[in-house]
Amino acid sequence: MITLRSPSVNSSTFVLTAFSGLEQQYPWISIPFFTIYTLVFLGNCMVLHVIRTDPSLHQPMFYFLAMLALTDLCIGLSTVHTVLGILWGFIREISLDSCIAQSYFIHGLSFMESSVLLTMAFDRYIAICHPLRYSSILTNSRIFKIGLTMVARSFFFITPPIINLKFFHYCRSHILSHSFCLHQDLLRLACSDIRFNSYYALMLVIFTLLLDAALILYSYVLILRAVLAIASQEERHKSLQTCISHICAVLVFYIPIISLTMVHRFGKHLSPVIHVLMGNIYILFPPLMNPIIYSVKTQQIRSRMLRLFSLKIC
User: Fold this and answer.
1) Which parts pass through the membrane (predicted)?
2) Residue 262: what pLDDT?
3) Which residues pair with 95 in a beta bridge?
4) List of residues 6+ apart from 23 with CB closer than 8 A
5) What radius of gyration do the chain's Cα atoms show?
6) What's the pLDDT band for 312 if we cut at 50, 70, 90?
7) Does the global pTM surpass 0.85?
8) Ordered alpha helix ranges (H), the chain
9) Average pLDDT of span 283-303
10) Region of 257 on the Ramachandran plot (φ > 0 left; ψ -120 to 50 alpha; else beta)
11) Which of 114, 250, 111 is closest to 183 using CA atoms?
């Protein structure tokens, strides 16, 4: 068994944790993780390629899907080097600066994904409730501005607490709970006054993730009301079908977050392996599933994917 060295309390490095007690099995455990990361990269790159190369997909709905795929791709890139690095034995420690940078991108990209899902809900609301005004509301210039606003909203507001991590004194054991760095994990190891970061992070979650979830739910209440007002049952079904992919993507994003929060809050008695596994599900499940969901449930993406594969086979 590999014994992890606990750094000095004054050290500027932190020990990353994978599946404690299963170190001898890391080469085997790395196989499914490598496969998942490969599928994340290939799936999201394929979605981006299809949308970029097919002029018929240059529409607001698919622009937002491209933003989602790009966000998922970046989430995979932000964690792959530490997760696989540990399992392959290349990495065991991470510097404070690298840890803070990784935490910044992980949390920023999570907020970005929430923002994109909210925008996609708005897109579906306009398409179903105001179809005649759809093209005039979601113009290319407006979509570009929405994209910039989402990036600014996701990364600007998390900057103060993340920068603050640099000035904390970390006097406790420098062993992290996951194979990547999270803001709350670093707070757990700090001996400085963390009240600003704790309260700020709570407010940020309330006014981003929770607010986004509430607005998404509200948009679907309006969508459902509009759909039920449609006389034709066939038209109702057709309208709801356009929302299925987005609803699945919302569930795929929020269920792991809720599950990880519950494990952190009520599962302190659980094995550390469970915490590590839930952390990796939170990071990898949405980027893995979103390309699959949209390839299966969205007819335009599915047909282009099939055409792409048939061309490659030929």
Assistant:
1) 29-51, 63-91, 103-122, 143-163, 199-223, 244-267, 273-296
2) 82
3) 13
4) 1, 2
5) 21
6) low
7) yes
8) 26-53, 60-87, 96-129, 134-137, 140-156, 159-164, 183-189, 195-205, 211-228, 233-266, 272-297, 299-313
9) 88
10) alpha
11) 111
